């Protein structure tokens, strides 16, 4: 078990959605919380709302900009010390057919969802290795386990995140380091990021989803889908069914392939 008390935690995308809720849950468990977000006003609002709960601060960072990430990481180390627990949570979705994406939208999605977690982790992991303690939680998506129309670029970024996150988990274990990697793959959550989505499978509640993630970090869980059965159903279904049969199962029975038809997203 990881005890969050007095641990320094950094959450990207902490100004809204599950990032904001996880910040509150960590403060309630006695952790010091550092928010990174592109939304300066959002950071200020979250700090104002939660400052009575514990030690919280924030930095405006565009995590798609490597230079900003590196200089903010330096600032954090100087001002806040070693980051013990890192939650790579910030993410974006464009939500169009692939051919409708601009090249800028493709690059931004890859930079924020896939590359930034690697760059940010590379800034903090050596300190974790030196103190032989740390935890990195990467918020991927069930879209990283299953193909889905109007989600191709997002899916690409999350498949990438899952492969990287779980590979570094193995590296830390091979190197006998007490550093844990938890990869989270949620189904749709009602934060507003996926507004307009219609789903046969119930959309997750943001408060409950955030609590499950914090408990997964606490219990050093490795690969976690929300809900839990999604992992077994997708992995097993893909393994035993021919692709056309799996398409029928995921598309018609589970209704997944049409979920994005009326996507609006966060404006
Ligand atoms: N909401 C869902 O249905 C759902 C499902 C599966 C996975 N996820 C993943 O969970 C994570 C959090 O999602 P959410 O629903 O809370 O989203 P959200 O939109 O509420 O929050 C995302 C946060 O990331 C910040 N952000 C965006 N671009 C940034 C950048 N370039 N630099 C720094 N910060 C940036 C935003 O300002 C925002 O505060 C994302 O990685 C998302 O892909 C969400």
TrEMBL record:
SUPFAM superfamilies to which the protein is assigned, alphabetical: NAD(P)-binding Rossmann-fold domains (SSF51735)
Keyword Oxidoreductase among UniProt keywords: yes
Pfam families, per the entry: adh_short (PF00106)
GO molecular function, one term: oxidoreductase activity, acting on the CH-OH group of donors, NAD or NADP as acceptor
Keywords associated with the record: Oxidoreductase
InterPro entries: NAD(P)-bd_dom_sf (IPR036291), Sc_DH/Rdtase_CS (IPR020904), SDR_fam (IPR002347)
Residues spanning the membrane: none
PANTHER family, per the entry: PKSB (PTHR24322), RETINOL DEHYDROGENASE 10 (PTHR24322:SF736)
Entry similarity comment: Belongs to the short-chain dehydrogenases/reductases (SDR) family.
Protein's name according to its UniProt entry: Short-chain dehydrogenase
Source organism of the structure: Brumimicrobium oceani
């Amino acid at each position: 078990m990881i005890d969050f008390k007095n641990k320094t935690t950094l959450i990207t995308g902490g100004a809204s959605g599950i990032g904001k809720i996880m910040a509150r849950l960590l403060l309630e468990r006695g952790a010091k919380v550092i928010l990174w977000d592109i939304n300066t006003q959002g950071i200020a609002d979250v700090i104002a709302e939660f400052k009575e709960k514990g030690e919280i601060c924030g930095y405006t960072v565009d995590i798609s900009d490597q230079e900003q990430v590196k200089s903010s990481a330096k600032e954090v180390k100087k001002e806040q010390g070693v980051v013990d627990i890192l939650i790579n949570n910030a993410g974006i979705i464009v939500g169009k057919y692939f051919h409708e994406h601009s090249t800028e939208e493709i690059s931004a999605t890859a930079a924020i969802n896939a590359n930034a977690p690697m760059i940010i982790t590379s800034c903090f992991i050596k300190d974790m290795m030196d103190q032989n303690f740390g935890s990195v939680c990467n918020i991927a998506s069930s879209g990283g386990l299953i193909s889905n129309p109007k989600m191709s670029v997002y899916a690409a970024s999350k498949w990438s995140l899952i492969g990287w996150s779980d590979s570094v988990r193995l590296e830390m274990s091979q190197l006998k380091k007490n550093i844990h990697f938890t990869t989270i793959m949620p189904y749709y959550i009602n934060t507003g990021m996926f507004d307009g989505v219609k789903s046969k499978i119930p959309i997750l509640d943001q408060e409950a989803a955030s609590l499950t993630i914090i408990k997964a970090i606490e219990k050093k869980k490795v690969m976690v889908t929300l809900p839990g059965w999604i992992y077994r159903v997708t992995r097993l279904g893909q393994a035993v069914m021919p692709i056309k049969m799996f398409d029928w199962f995921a598309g018609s029975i589970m209704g997944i392939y049409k979920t994005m038809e009326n996507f609006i997203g966060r404006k």
